[in-house]
Amino acid sequence: MDRCIWTMRKCHLATAFIMFTCLGILFSPIYNLFSSQTVISPKPRAAIQKPYTFSTLPCPKSRSNNSITPIKGTRYLMVSAFLMYEADGQINILTIMNRTHFESFTCIICCDKHGLEISAVLLDKHSDHFGFPFVTTDAFCSVESTCNATHVTISRPENLLDTQSHMYLPIHKYMIHNRKFDVDFTLCISCLFGGYNNVLQLVQTIETYKLLGVERVVIYKTHSGPELEKVLQSYKEEGMLEIIPWPIHHFLEPSKGWNYELHSGEVHYYGQQATLNDCIHRNRQRSRYVLLNDADEIIMPYQHASLRQLMEELQGQQPDVATFIFQTHVFSKNVANGSARFDLPQWRHVPGINILRHIHREPIRWFVNNPSKMIVNPRKVAQTSVHHVVKSSGRTLHVPNNLAIVLHTAKPQQPDLTFEKLIMDRKIWEFAERLIPNVNKILQKSGLLN
């Protein structure tokens, strides 16, 4: 009896093996068809289809200078295009695409005095998407060195011949070696939306950063309140602020939160990741370092007088580090004990939080994933998420809290904490004497002080 059962088991195993083998042979071409269109990471230029001259006609006049440009016949979006001289003829187009859809695209490249070239697109969809269907995507296409490319667009195969109907992005060209920087520190803030009008805190944040050594600020703006709009224009007139319009809501349904399961929408937090990556690209050759944080956050050194001194020490000790991560500490906006002297009458009618009044921070919860923000070397970062870098040619350093932290003055994350469990931290008061007149100056210029 046992022998018969053993024989039957062998027959069943053999049958199952034959069935799986046949299924594998049957579905292998289908799997290869789809997997050939799914690209996880950029490949060397030799792996990208060689470009060739498509037309001797001049570049079409339909040029886009917008921060968001639709790809014809799709809901996909182009943000910006870049070409590194050291990248051996590879254009990187920053886009927003659906992460679950896979299809072929072609680059149409405008060559100066050489007509049009076409090249296959290689897609690299960023791994961090927080569950949302649309995700930041790098689109790579190769170009001949003799082309001297000036503009580029992405096309579906069926629209390729209609070159005049596409919108073409300007190609930003830069060198990452042997370049003197315009500034040492650039602050990237994204995104202002929903009538954002936290005027006082934004001014205090920018003025504190100026005291710390930040020379340039880039803000991606979807929508801001009327008072904040006056402040932004004042900073723009000073020459330190670049405002990049970000009308993502005209093309996709943006989420007002970070988690797809908790917040509705098609793209994470008004396309925040696309703006952060775009800001890194824009500042590769202009800025030694780029700070990536929100409008209500300050990366604050605790043992150095400036960010320059802090970074010189950190970079000097570890020259191969490209990403410096700072832990976020929440200063509750609901607690203002012991700060009455900074309840300045001229600020009482200015919208927003007065960070000088909030000097009690919550203790770190070591059993949860605490958020963080970054300072990066933009020449070594290829892709970034919100709290960490995704692809980089350098190492990552988690900066110790005794050297620097992120001051985040906002609603409490631990509302049940008693006052006795909060930590008094008056670091921001060290800047008060210089900060107050500087804040008054910009508010006065913006017409917000009586």
Explain this structure to me?
With 450 residues, the chain is of the alpha+beta class. The chain has 2 domains: 45-174, Immunoglobulin-like; 183-445, Spore Coat Polysaccharide Biosynthesis Protein SpsA, Chain A. It is 22% helix and 30% strand. The protein has 6 helices and 23 strands. The strands form 4 sheets. Strands 1, 2, 3, 4, 5, 6, 7, 8, 9 and 10 form a 10-stranded mixed sheet that branches. A hairpin with an 8-residue loop joins strand 7 (122-125) and strand 8 (134-142). Helix 2 packs across helix 6 (432-445). The longest helix has 34 residues, at 2-35. The chain is elongated and about 70 Å long. The N and C termini lie far apart (100 Å). 41% of the residues are buried. Residues 1-48 have low confidence and may be disordered.
SSE layout and pairings?
Layout: H1 2-35, E1 52-55, E2 69-70, E3 77-84, E4 90-98, E5 106-111, E6 115-120, E7 122-125, E8 134-142, E9 149-155, E10 169-174, E11 183-192, H2 199-212, E12 216-221, H3 226-238, E13 241-245, H4 272-282, E14 287-292, E15 297-301, H5 307-317, E16 321-332, E17 360-361, E18 372-376, E19 381-384, E20 389-392, E21 395-398, E22 404-410, E23 423-424, H6 432-445
Parallel strand pairs: 3-10, 11-12, 11-14, 12-13, 16-21, 16-22
Antiparallel strand pairs: 1-6, 2-3, 3-4, 4-8, 5-6, 5-9, 7-8, 9-10, 14-18, 15-22, 16-18, 17-23, 19-20
Helix pairs in contact: 2-6
What is the CATH class name of the largest domain?
A: Alpha Beta
CATH architecture of the largest domain: Alpha-Beta Complex
Structural category is alpha+beta
Q: Estimate what percentage of residues fall within beta strands.
A: 25-35%
Q: Report the count of strand segments.
A: 23
The number of helices is 6
- What is the straight-line distance between the termini? 100 Å
Helix content: 10-25%
In total, the number of domains comes to 2
Largest sheet: 10 strands, mixed
CATH topology of the largest domain: Spore Coat Polysaccharide Biosynthesis Protein SpsA, Chain A
